Amino acid sequence: MNQVTLINPFKVPPFQEESFLDFWGSVAAYMRLQPGFLSTRLHKAAWEEAHFRFINVAIWESEEHFQAAIDKAEFKELTAPYRDVFPHYPSLYEVVRT
Amino acid sequence: MNQVTLINPFKVPPFQEESFLDFWGSVAAYMRLQPGFLSTRLHKAAWEEAHFRFINVAIWESEEHFQAAIDKAEFKELTAPYRDVFPHYPSLYEVVRT
Predict the structure, then answer these.
(1) Residue A92's closest CA among A54, A63, A61?
(2) R_g (Cα) of chain B, nearest Å
(3) Best label site of A75, B5, B38, B49, fewest CB within 10 Å?
(4) Rounded mean pLDDT of A53-66?
(5) Which helix (H) or strand (E) is A45 found in, with range?
C-alpha cells in the first residue's frame, strides 16, 4: 500500500466562497479523524479568471484508507447537501515525475 | 513576494499518454532553468474514470517569476503545438487552509 494524493478541484462562484469554506471546514474536520489521513492543503486561486477557485490536495496512507473514509454514512450525509452546489472532480493520484 | 503554487489539470485520453509525457518533459526541462522555479510534481490519476488524467503541481518563488517564465517566446513556441490538444486549466494558487 503506497501513499496516495487526493486532488479535488472545485468550481465556486465568488459570492459562494464563504459557504464553500464552511463546507470544506466541516468535511476536513471529519477527514482528520479518519484512519490513514495524513494531511490536507486547500488552495485558493490567485487569478480571478481561474477555472477552479479552490483545489484541495490531501495525502492519505493508502487508497484503502481513503475509500473507507468516503464509504461511511457520516461522510455521505455531510457532503450530500453540497454535492451539486459546487461542481468538483476528485480523483486519487500518484506522483509519476518530479 | 510569497511562494505560489501552480496547479494545472490536464484532460488526456488514454491513447495520448505517451505524447503528453513527452510534452510535459520538454516543458519541465525549460521550467527548471527559469529563475524562481523551485519544484514540480506531475500526478497521474489512479482512477480510470478520473476527469483529469494528469495534474501538475509546481512551486515558484513568486508570481512574478512564474509570469516571466511563461512570457518568454521560447515558452510560447514550446507549448503552442499542444495548447489545444490537451485541454488544461492552469492557475496560480495560495494555500489558505491546512
Answers:
(1) A63
(2) 14
(3) B49
(4) 97
(5) strand A37-45
**Rounded to 5 degrees, what are φ and ψ at A64?**
-65, -40
pLDDT at position B1, please? Answer: 59
Total Cβ atoms within 10 A of residue A62: 15
C-alpha cell at B67: 509570469
Is the ipTM here above 0.95?
A: no
Ranges of residues in chain B whose predicted pLDDT is under 50:
none
Sign of the dihedral through C-alpha A90, A94, A98, B3: positive
* Contact state of A41 with B97 under an 8 Å Cβ cutoff: yes
**Least Cα separation, residue B73 to chain A (angstroms):** 22
Shortest distance between the Cα of B1 and any Cα of chain A, in A, equals 13
pLDDT reported for residue A2: 83
